[in-house]
């Protein structure tokens, strides 16, 4: 597993030596996920008890058949015993169906709970998390690891209980039949334990590495098999490289699978030899006891049957720590994601932001994309046994404190430094500056895609960190330079902003964005599927749909990137006209690229190297003869229409 830009998955990069034992904290946490299914688990235990008890009757029936019914010619007894031999598997089968239903309900329920918890946690993560985490890794956690965790709760739990009850019941009957022979049968038990201890930790390490490599392979597939990734690969002719990179991980997955199979086979071979040795000893010594008259033939036959019922579950119980340890790896990997701290937190009992008037204020804002020196550092795991899941980040200051430690400050590149300004309700503020000046970063702080490292962002005098995230989102509409559309219909993409909007409201928004006529001309109109990320549409069409989506939302505050350089003149004109409509009556913060927007602005914010270097109207800034004048003469004046 890689370390992506000092990012979030360095958080998941653990010392392999700390993964070789299962701790109490992890087990308790797993049990908390099983708690809602306690009644079903109790029912499952009852079915296991019934099935196991009925199964243990078979050898006793065979013993009675051989020692009593046949020698004595008792046909009535023979009939009843034969009927019992048929009734037991039928009864077990019916109970087994009910048992499987309960087991499935528990397992699928745990999968549902884990997936929901993971997805909800990821939804609460800041934009930083998604910029520093590969999507394929997250998909692996949501799918493969969650399914792997299911086996710990269903199959492992069921098998463990069944085998424990079987071993206890079988031993009780065997001791009642002949205690000395039973002790001989148990002489091979140390061999079972030694094998499990030796091979268990090896299989667990193989399992974890298998999951990590599969996650890497999933990440490559996710990056290169979406439309943007495929386009990049083809444009640069990197198909051979990507094939080789994918083949490398696929090869490692294959080799790990082979290694796991071989190690498992050695393990089961050892168990088989131990079982054969124990069985041979019992039949050898039991045979002498039968010849001496101390054992009946029916008893030695029953004893032999019980040996199979003893060694099978005993082998499974010996292997249980191996299986359980491997399934716990899945839980560990799920919990590692759940334990990543939420950066953008909502305060308890935070009030909702009412419909905003639209005043925006930046108060001494400072921001860095890094936290501390190298982003989130590795995790310390502490618990009662020293290897728990109580997560501690090794950082200079906690994330929630909202600033970078002074001793580390000089090593961190600040994207924004000491930004202070105020935009009054209904005003249009244009942000200008060279590339990399911090313009987009500044706009991302308003809807709390990031939180500032220091300082406050206020709307109508309220710190946005003190209100609910949903109410903040309700008041802000944002159109980014890179328009994203879901693989769905035009209608669904528009209604994403306001699902309860009427057909008329949706069409009115589309008309205001100059996109209705185009949509209406499509074969299926508003029900036309836009394709992966909207790539069936042109850039201008996607951007106008994004503008229509914001118009439909009808926010009081509008944040947008006015980039139109890649569009043709017609699309650019349509978008500019749509933007003029959408900005009317709203507080607008626009990353401006056109002189018309800048001239219409009530205030122009000039950014350079993360600092607000100039602020004022167009004429005021020209008179200052600073950076704005330079930008005007080199960039914006080219857009002045000829007289």
What this model shows, in words?
The protein has 643 residues and is of the alpha/beta class. Helix 6 packs parallel to helix 7. 59% of the residues lie in helices and 10% in strands. The protein is elongated and about 120 Å long. It contains 23 helices and twelve strands. It folds into three domains: 23-338, ABC transporter transmembrane region fold (Up-down Bundle), CATH 1.20.1560; 370-409, no CATH class; 416-639, 3-Layer(aba) Sandwich (Rossmann fold), CATH 3.40.50. It has a six-stranded mixed beta sheet, sandwiched between helices. A four-stranded antiparallel beta sheet has the order 4-1-6-7, with helices on one face. The protein starts with 23 loop residues before the first helix and ends in a 9-residue tail after the last helix. The chain has helices spanning 24-34, 38-55, 57-72, 75-123, 127-131, 135-153, 155-177, 179-185, 189-224, 227-235, 239-291, 297-338, 406-409, 439-445, 469-475, 490-495, 503-512, 516-521, 539-553, 569-583, 595-600, 618-624, 627-634; strands spanning 360-367, 379-382, 390-393, 416-423, 428-432, 454-459, 462-463, 476-479, 557-561, 587-591, 603-608, 611-616.
Largest sheet data? 6 strands, mixed
State the CATH superfamily name of the largest domain. ABC transporter type 1, transmembrane domain
Shape summary: elongated
Count the beta strands. 12
Arithmetic mean pLDDT: 78
Strands, helices and their partners?
Layout: H1 24-34, H2 38-55, H3 57-72, H4 75-123, H5 127-131, H6 135-153, H7 155-177, H8 179-185, H9 189-224, H10 227-235, H11 239-291, H12 297-338, E1 360-367, E2 379-382, E3 390-393, H13 406-409, E4 416-423, E5 428-432, H14 439-445, E6 454-459, E7 462-463, H15 469-475, E8 476-479, H16 490-495, H17 503-512, H18 516-521, H19 539-553, E9 557-561, H20 569-583, E10 587-591, H21 595-600, E11 603-608, E12 611-616, H22 618-624, H23 627-634
Parallel strand pairs: 5-10, 5-11, 8-9, 9-10
Antiparallel strand pairs: 1-4, 1-6, 2-3, 6-7, 11-12
